[in-house]
Amino acid sequence: MSDGTVCPLCAVGCRLDVGDGDRAVGRTGPANPGGTLCEKGIRAPSVLDDPDRLTTPLVREDGDLVEASWGRALDRAADGLRGVLDEYGADALAFLGAPHCTNEENYRLQKLARVLGTNNVDNRARACHEEAADALIERFGYPATTFAAEDLENTDLLLAVGANPAVQQPVFFDSFVRPAVNRGDATLVQVDPRENETTRLAAHHVAPRPGSDARFLQAVCARLVERGDVDETFLDERTTGYEAYADAVSSVDPVRAAAETGVSADAVDAVADAVAEADRVAVLAATGVENDEGATPNALLDLLALTGNVGRPGTGFGLLRGLNNEQGATDAGCRPDGLPGHAPLDDAGARERLADAWGVEPPREPGLTEKEALPAFGEDVRGALVVGENPGVSKRDEAEVAERLDALDTLVVLDVFESETTAHADVVLPAAVGLEKPGTVTSLDRLVQRLSPRADPPGDARTDHAILGGLGRRLAGDAFAGDIADTARELAAVSDLHGGPDGERWPPADGGGTDTLYTESFATPDGRARFVEPSFEASTIPEDAFALVVASRAGGFGMEAGDDRLRLNADDAAELGVEDGERVAVSTVDGDASVEAVAHVTDGIRAGTVALHADAADPLVRAGATAVRVD
Ligand SMILES: Nc1nc2c(c(=O)[nH]1)N[C@H]1C(S)=C(S)[C@@H](COP(=O)(O)OP(=O)(O)OC[C@H]3O[C@@H](n4cnc5c(=O)[nH]c(N)nc54)[C@H](O)[C@@H]3O)O[C@H]1N2
Ligand SMILES: Nc1nc2c(c(=O)[nH]1)N[C@H]1C(S)=C(S)[C@@H](COP(=O)(O)OP(=O)(O)OC[C@H]3O[C@@H](n4cnc5c(=O)[nH]c(N)nc54)[C@H](O)[C@@H]3O)O[C@H]1N2
Ligand code: SF4
Ligand SMILES: [Mo]
Fold this sequence. Notes:
It contains 20 helices and 28 strands. It has about 625 residues and is of the alpha/beta class.
C-alpha cells in the first residue's frame, strides 16, 4: 500500500504526507492516483502546531473549566454519565460522534452506547446526507456509493444532482469525472437551480425550481416507462414493486410537471433520451438533494433501477460524502437504527456476534437521531457524550442549541479545539487529530484505508480511541481494555463489511474488496431493489419572495471562509432595481432574520431564485428560511 496517511479534510481520501512549513505533500493512492492534493488538503498539517489546540483535560469547577489530570477528568466524565444512567436509565444518554474519527473510534463509541443499554447513537453525517442515506437503505440496502470512482471511466451518462464536486470533492472530480468527460466517453448532465464550477464540464444544465427536482425526475421516469425504455429483465429478476410504481408514476402529467418545475417538456424528453441511449448511467448526488423528505433521492434510485443502471461498473449511485469519515462513522454503527456493518437492529446473527463480543446484546428499539436528540436535551435526554463534532453550530437556532446544551445534567466533549459545544461541557477531553493517529477511514466510495500517524499529539492530548477506552473501562469494564488492533479485530468479527485488506472497498470478498455493489443481489431483506410510491410536495414560495439556495457549508474544521455574494438573476435584478455590486439586505419572509450581501447579477441562476454561500446565509439557515425577500 502507498505510504503517508489519509487526508483528514474530506471524504475523497487522498493520501498525503507532512512536508515542510505546515504543508502537505501528495502521495499516490487509489483516491488520488496522480498524487495530487487540493488547496485545502495542502494546508491540512497546519492543525499540528496550532497554538489553540487543547492539550490538557478540563473539568468544570464553580462554573469555570479548569485543568485536571486524565485520571480525575475521566472519573468525572464517567461519574456524570453513570449518574444519569442510574437515575433516568440508559435512554437518557445520547452519544454523538464522529465523522472526523476513525472506524475503530466510531465502533468504540457506539459500543459504549449499546453496552450501557441505549441505541441513542448517531453522527453528523445526518446533517448532510440523511434523506439520500435513508432512501438507499430502504431501496438498495447500504447507505453508500454503489460504484468505484475509477469505474466512472466506463460511464456514458453522468447525472450530477445538487452537487458541486469540482469544488467540494476536487481531487475526485479531477481524477475521475473530468477525464471521463474530456475523453468524450461520458456526457455530464447537471441538475441544479444555479450554475456552479461543475457546470463548466456539463453538456446540459437543467435548473428546476428549488425543491422541484423530484417532480422533474419523476417526469423523466414517466417518459421512460411510457416509451418502454426500461430494462424488463432487470425489473423482472432484480426488483420488487415495479407494477405499482409504474402505475403511480404514469400519472405524472408532463404539462403540469413543467408548470411545477419551470422546466419545459422538451428538456424532460432530452434527458429521457439521453438516459435511454446510454448503456451506463451513474448519478452523483450531494447535499442539494436533501430538502424534500427523500423525494429526489428516491426519484434518482427509480431512474437507475428502471433502466438497470446499477450493479455494473460505471453505473449506480454516488453519495458524495463531505467530512473525511462520514461514511465510516455510519458503517461502524454510529446510527440509531442499525448495528455495525449496517445490520438491522433485529438481525439475529449480528445480535449474537455482538453478544459474544460484548457480553450483552444491543438494545432492540431504535434510538434517537441526532436531530431528535438535540431538542430532547434537558428533557428525555439528560447526559451526552460528544466526540469530534460541534452540535453547538448547527442548522438550528444558535441560542436554542446553547440552551439545550446547558439544560443537560452532564456533557462530556472530546475535541481538538475549544468550540461552541465545549463552552457548555462539564468535562473536555483533548483529542489527537487524524494526522496523529492510527486506524482506518472510509472514503466516499467505500475505500477503506489505513492511517499512519505523522506526528505526536500535542501536550497530554490522546487519541479518541484511547480516551473512549479510559471512559469505557470506567463505565463497562474490560470490554474496553484492548488496543486499536483488538478493536479492529472485533469490528471485523461482528460486521460483514469490515476487516478487508487495506486500500480495498467494503464489503471484503475473496481476499480483496468489492468495487461494484449489488452485482448479484441487493442488500435488502429479499435481495431485490425495492420500488416505492413516488412522492412530491410542491413547495410554496410567496409571490414577492425568492427561493433561497444555500451552497457549501459554514466554517468548520479545516474549511475556508466563503464569500458574501448574493447570486441574483438579471431579470430579477432589473425588476428590483438592483445593480451588480450593490449592497442588499436578504431577509426571511417574516423578517425575523436578515443578512447583508453584495448583489452578483448573473444568468447562472434561474429567475425567482437567489443563492448565498453558507457562511453568509448562516442566520437565515438557522431560522429555517427557504424563501427570502431582497431589498
Ligand atoms: N472546499 C470545501 N470542500 C468541502 C466542504 C467545504 O466546506 N469546503 N465541505 C464538505 C462537506 S461537509 C460536504 S457535506 C460537502 C458538500 O458538497 P456539495 O453538496 O456538493 O456542496 P454544495 O456546494 O453545497 O453543493 C450543493 C449544490 O446543491 C445545489 N442545490 C441547493 N438546493 C438544491 C435543490 O433544491 N435542488 C438541486 N438540484 N440542487 C440544489 C446548490 O446550488 C449547490 O450547487 O462538501 C465537502 N467538501
Ligand atoms: N448553520 C449551519 N449548520 C451546518 C452546516 C452549515 O453550513 N451551516 N453544515 C452542515 C454540514 S454539511 C456538516 S458536515 C456539519 C459539520 O458539523 P461538525 O462535524 O460538527 O463540524 P466540524 O467543525 O467539521 O467538526 C466538529 C469538531 O470536530 C473536531 N475534530 C476534528 N478532528 C477531530 C478528531 O480527530 N477528534 C476529535 N475528538 N475531534 C475532532 C473539530 O475541532 C470540530 O470542533 O454541520 C452541518 N451544520
Ligand atoms: S480532495 Fe479532500 S481528501 Fe483530497 S486533498 Fe482535498 S480535502 Fe484532502
Ligand atoms: Mo457535510
